[in-house]
Design goal:
EamA family transporter; globular; mainly alpha
Amino acid sequence: MKNNHQKGIVLLLVTAFLWSLGGVLIKGITWNSMGVAGTRSLIAALTILCLTGKPKLHFTWPRIWAILAYAGTVLIFVVSTKLTTAANAILLQYTAPIYTAFFGYVLLKEPVHKKDVVSIVIILGGMVIFFIESLSGGNLVGDALALFSGVTFSLMTVFMRMEKDNDPVQCIFWGNLLAFFIALPFMGKLEWNISNGMGILILGTCQLGISYILYSKAIVHVTALEGVLIPILEPILNPIWVMLVQREVPSFYTFLGGAIVILGVVSRSIEWKKEGIKKEQVG
């Protein structure tokens, strides 16, 4: 059990690292956003197919909605990353717990506690700071799309939780395939060179395809708290890689807003874990 737990931690760390490469790779490819998003998803779908075997042609309503939400998430995130800074794109997507609390209450009948409200207020404070900068910096559309990707990401999470006993990796496979077909008419002519080819190959195989397989395996062997906190490395590392490679330096408002958003997510995750431990002790 100890070895399985350590293995789960390592897999989560690798997953967070792979996810964090999204910003720098998307920025480095010269294609339009739909070209990047569509090709990345096609390669990711093929990667998942090769590693997990024949897809299952079994669709429930939660799976269909999870596929739609996933496709929306991966497409919108790439577009927002192209339009705004990588830091804003990933950190605004991490406002997802706000919407997850709402959708969880409506769709899963999960209660919303006072501590949920406090964490939501903290995250909203971080969002306000982001949009103060976007209004003056001309990144309003990109930031708004990044924010909306948080909505689709939260919907994907809720619907995949409904599918937790029904091979949720299938949602990722079909979602990537759907994203490719949605993007296909808007991809235009893609300029293939070594830089673009290597970038999109890493994006599709490692950053999106393999990372989700690793996450699905890791989450079985770690605590709920570790499953939430360790991937928080993604929005921390993502802007760092872009800053080092692309020289895109986040502003003071991005650092401040991002710190507040992460604080809201982490603080509530810790409370969720404490509540889980108390329930186990009572049980």
